[in-house]
Amino acid sequence: MPKPPPYSPEAAETLAVQALAFIAEDDSRLGSFVAATGIAPQSMREAAREPNFLAGVLEHILAEENLLIAFADNAGIDPAAVARAHQALGTAWERDLP
């Protein structure tokens, strides 16, 4: 079986923005994301402009199998595509701590 092509950084960012929207559309998913990342919901729009933050969004999706499956089903993609997109974005976002 041929290996799927890698994601371009632009395609990976698009998928990560789609994942962030998926997270944000459900209060439970959003609450879990906020608790895990510590980012305030009102700061997400600005943070979403950063590729490292978007990598963190995909990392969050990948960390929970049920969330990964739900997002992949919603997006109509193979769950492995999320991992490939995460890899294309590189390192995960780490918020600045005081």
Structure, described:
The protein is mainly α and 98 residues long. It has one domain (13-89). Helix content is 67%, strand content 0%. The termini are far apart.
Number of helical stretches of at least 4 residues:
6
Mean of residue pLDDT?
86
Shape: globular
Number of domains: 1
Helix-strand makeup class: mainly alpha
Low-confidence stretches: 92-98
Summarize the biggest pleated sheet.
Answer: none
Gap from first CA to last CA:
48 Å
List SSEs in N-to-C order.
Answer: HHHHHH
- Write down the oligomeric state: single chain
Instruction: Please state roughly what percent of the residues sit in beta strands, choosing from under 5%, 5-15%, 15-25%, 25-35%, 35-45% or over 45%.
Output: under 5%
Q: Tally the beta strands.
A: 0
Portion of residues in helices?
55-70%
How large, in whole angstroms, is the Cα Rg? 13 Å
Provide the fold topology.
Elements lengths: L8 H16 L2 H11 L6 H4 L3 H13 L1 H11 L3 H11 L9
Structure described in brief:
With 98 residues, the protein is mainly α.
Task: Sum up the structure in keywords.
0% strand; disordered C terminus; single chain; 98 residues
